[in-house]
Amino acid sequence: MSGTADGAGRAYRQLVIAGTVGNVMEWYDFAVYGYFVRPIGQAFFPAHSETASLLAAFGAFAVGFLMRPLGAAVFGYLADRIGRAYSLIWSVAAMAVPTFLIGLLPTYHEIGLAAPLLVLLCRILQGFAVGGEYIGSVVFLMERAPTGRRGVAGSWPSVGSIFGFLLGSILGAAIFGVMPHAEVFAWGWRLPFLFGVAVGLTGYLIRRRIRLDKPPASVGFPLAQAIRTHPVQMFQALGVSVVNGVGFYLMFAYIVTWLQIYAHVKPHVSLLINSINMAIMMPATVWAGWLSDKVGRKPVLVVTALGLVVLSWPLLAVMHTGALVDIFLGQFIFCLLIGAYGAINPVVISEIFPPAERSSAASVTYNVTLAAAGGTAPIVAIWLIDTTGDPMAMVFYLILAAVISAAASLSIRGQSRGTL
Fold first, then answer.
1. Which residues, 6 or more positions from 165, have their beta carbon under 8 angstroms from its beta carbon?
2. Which of 164, 210, 240, 393 is deepest in the core (most CB within 10 A)?
3. What is the CATH number of the domain that holds 375?
4. What are the residue ranges in the chain where pLDDT is below 50?
């Protein structure tokens, strides 16, 4: 009996690793692009001012997000009609190649306009791949989780994504800390993109060992069916996901650049603080999943969203002082609130749809929101700051997103601890 239990536990741990590993690759790439956006802007999008160069570079960052809904529709269809595992195998493979290619691309000064166009093409391919990854892996793990542990199971892809960001942050801190500033801007920024191929290959090899599953839908187009029969849930899923996208990409991607420009923190220091807080966020994420299994998903979502409404301004003001302890503590509280919300967000929007439509509906709604609100968050932040002249102006975008998501979370009925 004990041997059977051990075998089942080992098999489930292998599933968790397979479901999580792809998110490391997917989000590692998005992280290193955000952390090296200043040298990328100079290499591919030179302009008359740093603000213009940053806007162009973050514009390419946003283009990747705009492709995510299309990738979600395609990979969601594969997951619902062909199988969850099949979709996950190919989404991680589709991410590794363009990540590696960005590290090899010639710059604007070498080939002119073709350089930024090639960056855009790579971002398009990356965005397409990531659209099928995150929610697909959440659904994959939740549907195989023991009863009463679906919140914990669904939180593991969040841990993978955070670890991907953390890995990118650690490499960024090491490169900025060891290499002369001029060399980082000249060629050192390429190193984390080239390293990404090893991360992607590892994920692909692990997932090739997954046992293929039977698809829950046998006919039709699951996304079209969800739009026709569950329109209210589609809007709820969109609203619930807003603050997750805005909060994460402001406080853990753009914040590194913001600290360098407006709090006058050295690049390797801002990346080190970011890395420490993201390491802390991983156990906090699993804890939030466990808590949602005990008290329900909605209380966790509502409390953390309202916490962001109340605390975002004072926390960012503390970080703006430039004192390292204040920066660490401010981002630490952000990481607890955003990490807990982000862990439960994909679980909730997956649970509100039936199995035959789940991957398509949850993936598309999540990625539409992330494309519209998350991928554009750095651009909105830069525009708000540049327009108002106030480095704190970006906080209003985060507060608005938190209000929208709190209202959407409160609107969900009949879901406490989630029965799939």
1. 27, 28, 30, 31, 252, 253, 278
2. 240
3. 1.20.1250.20
4. 1, 416-420
